[in-house]
Amino acid sequence: MTEQPVKNTTTKEDIEKNKGMAALAYIIFFLPMLTEAKDSPYAMFHANQGLVLLILAVLISMFGSLPLIGWFVIMPLGSLLVIVLWFIGIINAINGKMTELPLIGSFHLIDQK
Question: Which residue among 36, 43, 97, 101 is buried most deeply as judged by most CB within 10 Å?
């Protein structure tokens, strides 16, 4: 599976200014929306990726509560997937990349301007 960067709609200045906020978006996805970063396509791209990752984590938690298959398959593998995607997203944000996360990155829930 090759990573496909999205169409770059931002500038190098925007990326440099909002790297920290983009990385924080994977921890608290709505944080860029509360600051001046809400006008940054770069920060909003990563806020969207953080929101989609949060939704995936909630779904894994819900289905992970199913007896047996949830406890022994869904929860362990799903949690590992979320942790790996979380690290990939933060590393992409810190490195100035607008690359969609594998498997879930194509979902767009936040307008990226």
Answer: 43
